[in-house]
Specification:
The chain has 159 residues and is of the alpha+beta class. It has one domain: 7,8-Dihydro-6-hydroxymethylpterin-pyrophosphokinase HPPK (Alpha-Beta Plaits, 2-Layer Sandwich). It contains 4 helices and 8 strands, in the order βαβββαβββααβ. A hairpin with a 4-residue loop joins β6 and β7. The termini are far apart.
């Protein structure tokens, strides 16, 4: 049986953490994303600090990575969840504080809606901690209405 090579797709991944050394966790996750099979990291946003939004616990450190990957969206999601687990991610209740959170925001121009994965991420445009770093790596995806919708949320650019 032969394996058919897939054309690479641009994927956007939100990265966040608010437990332990959150900044180090985000930085390590960025490095790990570039080491996923059939994947390379094209660009990474600055790091941002935000108060929890629809969540609890200490402030979050957030970023967005632009990847080029030949992994399918479900395989990429599985790889992201494995990185979360390796970082000690637990899910005791919705929006619990976390050692690492990796969300697949967009996978090329694909629209997916399954019980396990929805792409584009259904709430990305409501969250400054996604919109600000996403603008760093993919400014064409942020229109004025999206920017204005999150402008009242407190966010601090760190780097």
């Amino acid at each position: 049986m032969s394996v058919v090579a897939r054309a690479p797709v641009e994927a956007l991944v939100a990265i966040g953490a608010n437990l332990g050394d959150a900044r180090a966790s985000v930085t390590q996750a960025i490095e790990a994303l570039g080491q996923l099979p059939q994947t390379r990291c094209l660009q990474v946003s600055a790091l941002y600090r935000t108060e929890p939004f629809q969540a609890q616990g200490p402030d979050f450190i957030n970023a967005v990575a632009k990847l080029e990957t030949a992994l399918t969206a479900p395989d990429l999601l599985q790889a992201l969840q494995a990185l979360e687990l390796a970082a000690g991610r637990e899910r005791p209740y919705p929006n619990a504080p976390r050692t690492l959170d990796l969300d697949l925001l967009m996978y090329g121009d694909a629209t997916l809606d399954s019980p396990r994965l929805i792409v584009p991420h259904p709430r990305w445009h409501e969250r400054a901690f996604v919109v600000y770093p996403l603008r760093d790596v993919s400014p064409e995806r942020i229109d004025e209405a999206t920017w204005q919708a999150v402008s009242a949320q407190i966010i601090e650019r760190l780097s």
